[in-house]
Design brief:
Layout lengths: L3 E6 L4 E8 L4 E8 L42 E3 L3 E9 L2 E14 L16 E11 L13 E4 L7 E4 L21 E10 L4 E6 L3 H4 L3 E4 L1
Parallel strand pairs: 1-9, 4-12
Antiparallel strand pairs: 1-2, 2-3, 5-6, 6-7, 7-10, 8-11, 11-12
């Protein structure tokens, strides 16, 4: 089946948009100035459409890990559950974090206005989370993004670079995020034209790239 993904980017000065497809076709469109949109350095790969179970237990898809236990690849959690995860931002910024998805909130199409014509018909979703420093290593200024998961488990096919100030603010770790117990809150922006976003996934690192940890509402 021919699949494609849409990449939308916003910056403080000029927004750029690209539509990329599996066969390599691309098109770019320049957009108007937007003082409300903030920049992101890069886009991640599209989320996996498969979320295998955390273990061999049948039925409910597993539960949140106990304090200090690292979440297994493929773990299925509920919004509000806390997962301890290995995390690497750069070769110098690595450690262990605890991640809690606190809410997945639906926005309106009007919220996507800063992203221009390519975003028409898209509904945004705000994935809000709390990040804790569990390992006590220096993770200051590191940033983390979760991808939205559609009802049924597929990815959205949309990669967003930017945020929606006041509704979904993407925050990096503060300077003080260097000790055990330090925490901050942030938000990842997702959007779709099709089924609703009902979950969020962590797919960073070799262990989780093909078997993400998924939080579902």
């Amino acid at each position: 089946m021919h699949k494609r993904r849409i990449v939308l980017a916003a910056s403080l000065a000029i927004m750029g948009f690209a539509l990329s497809a599996c066969d390599g076709d691309e098109e770019g469109v320049a957009a108007q100035d937007s003082p409300s949109a903030s920049a992101s350095a890069s886009a991640s790969a599209p989320p996996s459409s498969e979320t295998p179970a955390a273990d061999d237990n049948s039925g409910d898809g597993g539960s949140a890990p106990a304090e200090g236990d690292v979440a297994e690849p493929g773990a299925k959690l509920k919004v509000g559950d806390r997962a301890v995860l290995p995390f690497e931002y750069t070769s110098d910024k690595k450690g262990t974090i605890a991640l809690t998805v606190t809410a997945i909130e639906k926005g309106t199409e009007a919220d996507m206005a800063a992203f221009g014509d390519k975003a028409k018909g898209m509904t945004p979703y705000f994935i809000k989370m709390k990040v804790e420093n569990v390992g006590g290593t220096d993770l200051s200024y590191a940033s983390l993004k979760l991808d939205g998961v559609l009802e049924g488990g597929a990815g959205t096919g949309v990669i967003l670079m930017g945020d929606i100030p006041g509704k979904c603010d993407k925050e990096s770790a503060p300077r003080e995020f260097t000790t055990e117990g330090a925490s901050y809150e942030t938000c990842s922006l997702s959007a779709t034209k099709t089924a609703p976003v009902t979950g969020a996934e962590f797919d960073e690192g070799d262990a989780y790239s093909n078997s993400p940890v998924v939080w579902a509402s």
